[in-house]
Amino acid sequence: MSSEGASSGKFRDFAEEAFALPAIPAKPEALAGVRVLEVATRIFGPATADYLGVFGAEVIKVELPGRGDLMRYVAPEGFFWKDVSPAFLALNRNKLHVGLDLHAPEGVELFLRLAEVSDVVVENLRAGTMDEWGAGYLQLRERNPGIVYAANSGFGQWGPYAAGRASYDATAQAVSGFSAITGFPDQPPLKAGFWVGDYTGALMSAIAILAALRARSETGQGQLIDLSQAEAMIRALDWTWPYAAQCGQDRRRAGSLDPSYLPSGIYRCADGFVAISARDEEERVRLARALGAARPAGEGDAAPEHVAAFAASRTREELVRWAEASGFSAAPVRGGREQYGDPHLRARGTVCEVTDPLYGRIDEFGPAPKLSRSPGRVKSSAKPVGWHNDRVFGELLGLSPAERDELTRKRVIGTWADLPGARPPKVADEP
Amino acid sequence: MSGFAEWARAATDPAAAGGKPEALAGVGVLEFGSGHFGGMVAASILAEFGADVIKVEPPGGEALRRVAPGGISRAGTGLPFLSEARNRRFVTLAADRAEGRALFRRLAEGADVIVSSEPERDQDAAGIGYLSLRRDHPRLIYLSLSTYGSFGPDAHRPVRDCDLLCQALSGAPYIVGEPEDGDTAPRPHQAPTRLGNWHGAFVQGLWGAFGVLSALRFREGSGKGQFVDIAGAEALMQFTDYNITWMHTAGKARARLGNFDPAVFPYTYIRCRDGHTFIAAYNDEAFDSLMRIIGRPELARDPRFATPAARVRLENEKALLEILEEWSAVRTADEILNAVEGYTSRQSGPAAAVVTGRVNRPLETLGEENWRERGCFVRTELPVYGETVLAAPPWKMSGTPARWKSGCKPPGADNRDVYMGDLGMPEEEFARLQASGAI
User: Is B259 within 8 Å of A191 when comparing Cβ atoms?
Assistant: First the structure.
């Protein structure tokens, strides 16, 4: 075995070089050459396509001309920046935006032509809607048997609840059982304050798309992926199901303690909150010993109330240092403000600066998985409705300016309505 | 059922998945690490799509087997491990011994992917890390899972990675739970709140699987493997909405608002006669629909509620929640669903975007016909561990469906199959390694 110091230094050197941020723009992209059509609104479908786009797929986001994706009008405290909502920006990076109405037969025909030159379709309309429009999987595969079609929905494309039932993130949080096990035992079930029921499904959808693309490399055949966001949440609930089956009762809400690793939990301290964690017997013993050492009464006891009493008067930083010195684990509870300024997240590109030709500098979350050779990256921000119509309908499909004008006149294709959220900024920043 | 729904059912019913080809057939995955749920999830996801996963445990079994919430375990294995130990073979080796490490290297030679949840600096020091393995195996894809990641100023922090740490750093608990009142001393539940399941670890595993699949795609074209680094904190962080863009554009950070929301309302749980249910109707047309459903159409023009920006003022959210609960408290969740669907089925587009869904307890979810018909749960009788119920892979796919194939087995259950079958180890060597405690 090589000596630890030299060896870990070698890995550190490798990692620093392999993941250096300045080298990323010149590196290849993992999903280069994959073209994705997105016909989706709000979060579930757009996030699926966003994840693929960040790793190099070319995503064409199809929106209804005029108002476009209704997510454009979801604005925190009603706030728009340069006429775009910060909530919309976060879900629609690296995309080409076209305005195309699939209610019109000519719109469907254009969409089918786009599908002929695409690899993947992502949609999150109510089950069966695309099929009614003549743009569903069965129609698309006639034109392109290799198409991978991800149908994201609340309850699935078939089954008792499939017909007509709408779903948002919190529908999935609610019906899956996720909220029933989240929160405090003496309080009602808790809705998580972020759209976790959408993102979890979206990531699962993106994973299935990548698996289906791999299958297609072998067979040339595409397929239908039917993913329900509620079922995605059901899959994520770890020991909830074997416990319910074995005990005939529901696991209890445990507040901020982790019932698998007591006394691990989130504790209030002098300047906020801290997570104290003991993942195994070794860490638990060290935590108990450290508590004992800190209490004049003698032997340590790692009951939650003792941890709570110890943490109350100390800062997060003191508690993290105490854990590191004592041999168990701790981490501060952080929010968006701290993430934004965190040097670690900046050094990893997890919070990154994007220079967008239309909006100027905009900071975003960078990719979660860091790939040493074909890293993900945020190249551009979201755009107004129909911003890339000419590029997609002109350059990609080869429609002449006269044909495009005609389709625009018929409102089959179009751009933004004159509304905050849909339209370009009044004055663009210098890049 | 529509023609499409009928076709989709016939083409994607998980009951008919057996015998169909698998998307990741031929992809070999070696899973290494102890006490780590996220690593198991990453490997499970790949295994559900058909990868051949071998899980390496120390002799006697890995630490996660001994994690038993409520003191419940089956034949020495707790329910968390049982829930995720699927579609894989189980081998043991003593990685703290030279012959165990040599065996690990032989297994790694045959793998396309390694999933490791041990700190990479330790793996590297022991000569079984990425740099050492890739020397003879440039196509290797190596996934490393940790709290802070393998590089960056905090990468050296000596924590044992787990869900709780990842959740705390992710920003999720910060915006989950009830805010403090301000006037009175905070009550225990007025605090950042854990997502009740191990969602941090689960999402860490999902992003790990995503990273591996992206790297496999890159390898198809280039022939080159690579290192995939996942910080569990950053995995769930990706899901915290517009935390960064709002900070950048307005200097504002999300705060805990309990049942309320800074960007969309109504988008909330409401009390009903038989518990709680979700109700959302946040764009103008949908809000108008909801006010008609509850018999208060005039409220759509009330200045407190007439625009999205007015509806997300906290005092207006509180007033509206009271109005909604006057209506919902005397109705069951099913009656609310029927009222919503009865109205929205006659609407289209934005006016139909009134959305509901009952807050189910797990046993209620288990009892619902929709999930039973769609094969969301696996009811199985496992050798050694007995009868159990597990969540099935959620994807229904027409060509290469994901599927549940096998469940938990004891540590080393597949030693003979893997070491003698896959590696071609002679019987005498196998017996010797067994006798010496290396496997």
Answer: yes
